[in-house]
């Protein structure tokens, strides 16, 4: 099933992205979660090498802009000038850490 987004909000003050999915699910993704899930090659490599997440610095976790990319992705840039992450809807849903998606 193709994931669809009913509503997409960037809550700038809370530094988080809120997504209402067409299946009724709601996802809230704070800046540090987005940054730790950044799909660009640079961040992927860092994660594979188990380096400390870059979100140690506050600006790295601060969302600077959100731009739609085509119909199924958004580009998210961070305040430390890290702008290479293209987040597909699928990825945004994967990053969801609500109790339903990540049962304790
Ligand atoms: Zn990245
Ligand atoms: Zn969820």
Please give the structural blueprint.
Elements: E1 5-11, E2 16-21, E3 26-30, H1 31-36, H2 41-48, E4 63-69, E5 73-78, E6 85-88, H3 89-95
Antiparallel strand pairs: 1-2, 2-3, 4-5, 5-6
The structure holds zinc ion (2 copies).
Residues 25, 27, 96, 98, 100-101 line the site of one zinc ion.
> CATH class, please?
Alpha Beta
The CATH architecture comes to 2-Layer Sandwich
For the report, how would you describe the main beta sheet?
3 strands, antiparallel
User: Structurally, how many domains make up the residues?
Assistant: 1
Number of strands: 6
Bound molecules: zinc ion
- Please give the count of helices: 3
Report the mean per-residue pLDDT as an integer.
91
Gyration radius (Cα, Å) is: 13 Å
Short description:
With 104 residues, the chain is of the alpha+beta class. It is 20% helix and 34% strand.
What report would you give on this structure?
By secondary structure, the chain is α+β, with helices and mostly antiparallel strands. The protein has one domain (5-95): NE0471 N-terminal domain-like, CATH 3.30.2020. Helices cover 20% and strands 34% of the residues. It is built from 3 helices and 6 strands; from the N terminus they run βββααβββα. The protein has helices spanning 31-36, 41-48, 89-95, and strands at residues 5-11, 16-21, 26-30, 63-69, 73-78, 85-88. Strands 1-2-3 form a 3-stranded antiparallel sheet. A 3-stranded antiparallel sheet has the order 4-5-6. A hairpin with a 4-residue loop joins strand 1 (5-11) and strand 2 (16-21). It is globular, with a radius of gyration of 13 Å. The mean pLDDT is 91. One zinc ion is lined by residues 25, 27, 96, 98, 100-101.
């Amino acid at each position: 099933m193709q994931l669809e987004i009913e509503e997409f909000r960037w809550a700038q003050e809370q530094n988080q992205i809120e997504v209402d999915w067409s299946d009724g699910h709601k996802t809230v993704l704070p800046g540090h979660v987005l940054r730790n899930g950044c799909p660009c090659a640079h961040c992927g490599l860092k994660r594979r090498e188990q380096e400390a997440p870059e979100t140690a610095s506050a600006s790295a976790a601060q969302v600077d802009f959100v731009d739609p990319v085509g119909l199924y992705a958004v580009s998210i840039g961070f305040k430390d000038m890290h702008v290479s992450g293209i987040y597909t809807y699928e990825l945004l849903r994967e990053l969801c850490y609500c109790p339903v998606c990540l049962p304790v």
